[in-house]
Design a protein that fits this description.
Strand content: under 5%
Length: about 140
């Protein structure tokens, strides 16, 4: 028996895109499959399998320390996929005071990242940072600057 796909025919182009960050959230959720992650506490430490939900719980633990996470792997191993999944899990949990910035892999500059950060500030705080960013001009936008 042939099981129909979980997407509409007109969504086919979105589903077959190889880059997870280009897929609409509802399509991503429909095609996402869980698999173990391998977590190491240090760059040269042993890698141990961790169920994704356990990783999210560790990542979002409410304490005074920030958790830094580096996702590594060869091309096509699902790095963008796990970041997209993590973003959706964080949003689903709706944790107070949690800000998630999605920075696309392409077409991104330091200026656009700063603009995204500024836009997340309370409105009364944004003006001073926007003015400073605008005052920087393009002279300091080179790699050397």
């Amino acid at each position: 028996m042939l099981i129909p796909p979980c997407w509409q025919d007109q969504e086919f182009g979105q589903v077959v895109k190889p880059d997870a960050e280009e897929i609409d959230d509802h399509v991503f959720r429909a095609v996402h499959c869980q698999s173990d992650l391998y977590l190491a506490r240090t760059s040269d430490g042993p890698r141990n399998p961790v169920p994704p939900n356990d990783f999210v719980n560790q990542f979002l633990v409410d304490n005074d320390q920030d958790m830094l996470c580096v996702v590594v792997g060869k091309s096509g191993t699902g790095k963008s996929h796990i970041i997209q999944w993590l973003r959706l899990e964080i949003l689903k949990r709706n944790i107070e005071n949690n800000v998630f910035l999605r920075i696309p892999k392409s077409g991104t500059s330091l200026r656009s990242i700063l603009e995204r950060i500024i836009s997340q500030l309370p409105e009364h705080e944004q003006t001073q940072y926007r003015e400073r960013l605008d005052g920087a001009g393009n002279a300091s936008m080179s790699q050397e600057a």
